[in-house]
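Data deposition worksheet. Section B asks for the primary sequence of the deposited chain exactly as it was used as input, without tags or linkers unless they were present during the calculation. Section C holds the resulting structure in token form. Section D is free text for depositor observations; keep each observation to a single sentence. Incomplete worksheets are returned to the depositor.
Section A, Depositor: J.P.
Section B:
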Amino acid sequence: MTQPSYDFSGRVALITGGGAGIGLATAEAFGKAGASVCIMDVNPDKGERAAQAVIAAGGRAISFDGDVANRFQSSAAIEATRAAFGEIDYLINAAGVFKHGEALLLDEWDWRRVVDVNLTGTFFMSQLLGRVMADNGGGVMVNFGAVGARPQGVSYVASKMGVIGLTQQLARELHPYRVRVNAILPGGLGEEDMPASSITSTPDAAAHAALFLCSAAARFITGQTLTIDGGASLGLG
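Section C:
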């Protein structure tokens, strides 16, 4: 199926968790659409490889080694992006971690680490870059959540459901500053040894949804969640 085309020439996107998975697919998609991209990832090798992949495809990109759960590193990533490319138009919060284990057995460190990255990190990046976007007259943020409960992963589910509430509140508070905020809820991506029957989405599908939400076609969309799971959440598939 032919994907819709977008033109983000002259625009700048900061993508967290851009070294792999959805973040990498989104970085490549924005690069192909003409945007300059900063790929923030806690793994410097993955981040640099992702940036080189964008450049090899004809885009402009830099990588930044940083942990979104660290407020100072989040701030540094924003400043590095502005120094390289100018003001930032789009924030894609794709950084995320998952921890297996039953709720009754999960230890405190694992709980805190997952929530710190998935929810608190999303807040740090949104707050810090939201201030910049407000001063610059607007921007767009896209957060990645998740679809409902699963057999295991209480910290992941709690943090990702929290992202939905965070998205709605940010959309409300940032609306006067012309900043739109939306969330994407991808389905099963074939990770964590999922059987083929559980794959209901792809990183590319999520990336193109992010392009749409950042485009002018979505200029009246804010505070919403876009579920991409082939109808699995409705019992289809």
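Section D:
The mean pLDDT is 92.
Residues 181 and 192 are 29 Å apart (CA to CA).
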